[in-house]
Amino acid sequence: PIVHALGATHPLALAPVTAPPASVDGFVREFLHNLNFELGVSLSASSVNDRYLALAQTVRDYLMARWLDDQRRLSEIKPKTVCYLSAEYLLGRQLDNNLLAARLTDVATEALAACGVSLEELREIEVEPGLGNGGLGRLAACFIDSLATMSVPSIGYGIRYEYGIFRQTFVDGQQVEQPDSWLRLGSPWEFPHPEAAQTISFGGHTEKYVDDDGVERSRWIPGWNVLAVPYNYMVPGYHNGRVNTLRLWRAVATSSFDLRVFNSGDYEEAVRAQTYAENISKVLYPEDSTPQGKELRLQQQYFFVAASISDFLENVLGDGVELEKLPSRVIFQLNDTHPVIAVPELMRVLLDERRLDWDDAWAITQQCFAYTCHTLLPEALEVWSVDLLGRLLPRHLEIIYRINEEFLEAVRERFGDDEMRIRNMSIIGEHPYRSVRMAYLATVAGAKVNGVAELHSQLLRDKVLPDFDEFYPGKFTNVTNGVTPRRFIRLANPDLASLITEALGAGWTIDLERLRGLEAYAEDPEFRAKFAAVKASNKRRLSDVLHVRDGFDVSEDHMLDVMVKRLHEYKRQMLKVLHIVTEYEGIASGRVAASAVQPRTFVFGAKAAPGYIMAKRIIHLINAVGKVVNEDPRVEGRLKVLFPPNYNVTLAERLIPAADLSEQISLAGKEASGTGNMKFALNGALTVGTDDGANVEIRQLVGDDNFFLFGMTEPEVEALWAKGYRPADFYQQDDDLRRAIDLIASGAFSDGDRSVFEPIVSNLLYDDRFMVLADYSSYIAAQAQVDAAYADQDAWTRSAILNIARCGFFSSDRSMRDYIDRIWHTPPVL
Ligand code: Z2T
Question: Which CATH architecture best describes the domain 491-817?
Answer without folding.
Answer: 3-Layer(aba) Sandwich (3.40)
